[in-house]
Amino acid sequence: MRLRAAIFLILGGLGTWGILNAQKPFFSYESNEDHAAAALPPDWERQAEWTRARLKYTSSGWDHPWPNNTGRYGWRTDYPLGDRHTLQGLLRLTRVDAKSVEQVVELDNSSDIYNWPFLYGVEVGHWSLNDEEADQMRDYLLRGGFFMTDDFHGTQEWDVFMEGMRKVFPRRPVVDIDNKDEIFHVLYDIDQRSRIPGAQFLQSGIPWEFDGFEPKFRAIYDDKGRVMAGICHNVDMGDAIEWSDDPQYPENYASLAYRISANYVMYDLTH
Is 100 helix (H, G, I), strand (E, B) or coil? Predict the structure, then answer.
């Protein structure tokens, strides 16, 4: 009788552990993009080998000049079309078995983030990480996770981003990625990287934002030389991909954004 009770206790404990550590279910948030009333893809429930996770974060106190990026919604800029176009591009251009929908994840002290090896953060010039979130981000990256940032521009947004990253890695430098680094050659040879403007360029004619005149592709490396964080500053690949099926948006910018994104994914899968 005692043995049976012990077995039930162990099984009950394992079941509870499994529930607590299971992946969180997919949830579709409201978009803050005017044209992004996207229905779920018909195969959104299909299980796949790879999923792109999008980081949901709390925004910092200063406002973005574009109203839909202010407050607590900056994390979902280009959502969901940017994500879903990226995933369709991967399915067409690579052999990655990608899920057709993104997974929104948080640094919430649960184990969920460790289920998703590729984490994408947008408008990180407006994020605000507390110490617990920074600790979990550090642990995630040192365990082998990959963090890609995009769509933040100029000095002020860089400073806000770095305020968070210094909490994550107080002593690891952010460096420009050498042109010979495998991340630029793992799938496509991307020897030349130009500015990739956001969709605001279609109205303003100005291909940069704030004082972000020069595109920067930077990284934080681990002790073995692996890129843990691929930092795309003064470029807007999310917009380029989101608007890639709009004839007004230049094809050369969209194509470069797809190639860089595919390289970053393949790098994460092979390093």
Answer: coil
For residue 40, how many C-alpha atoms fall within 13 Å in the half-sphere facing its CB? 14
Report d(CA 165, CA 137) in Å as an integer.
9
pTM here is 0.88
* Of 241, 155, 261, 156, residue with least CA distance to 197: 241
Show the tokens assigned to 80. 């969901």
Q: Hunting for tokens 């079941």 — which residue is that?
A: 15
% of the chain at pLDDT higher than 70: 86
| pLDDT digits 0-9 by tens, 21-70 | 578 999 989 887 765 557 799 999 999 999 999 999 998 765 555 544 44
Amino acid letter, residue 244? S
How far is residue 251 from each of residues 36, 93, 157, 202, measured CA to CA in Å?
Answer: 20, 16, 27, 13
pLDDT in tens, 97-125: 999 999 999 999 999 999 999 999 999 99
Q: Which two tokens stand for residue 48?
A: 């796949």
Asked if residue 126 lies in contact with residue 160, where contact means CB atoms within 8 angstroms, the answer is yes
pLDDT, average across residues 197-215 = 93
Which run of H or E residues covers position 17? Answer: helix 2-21
Sheet with 103-106, side-by-side order of all strands = 103-106, 53-56, 118-122, 146-150, 227-233, 216-221, 175-176
In this structure, is the dihedral angle defined by the CA atoms of residues 122, 166, 129 and 182, taken in order, positive or negative?
positive
| Complete domains list, the chain, with CATH | 47-270 (3.40.50.12140)
Q: Using an 8 Å Cβ cutoff, are 90 and 265 in contact?
A: yes
Residues 237, 266: Cα–Cα separation, whole Å: 17
Short-list 237, 29, 215, CA closest to 120 = 237
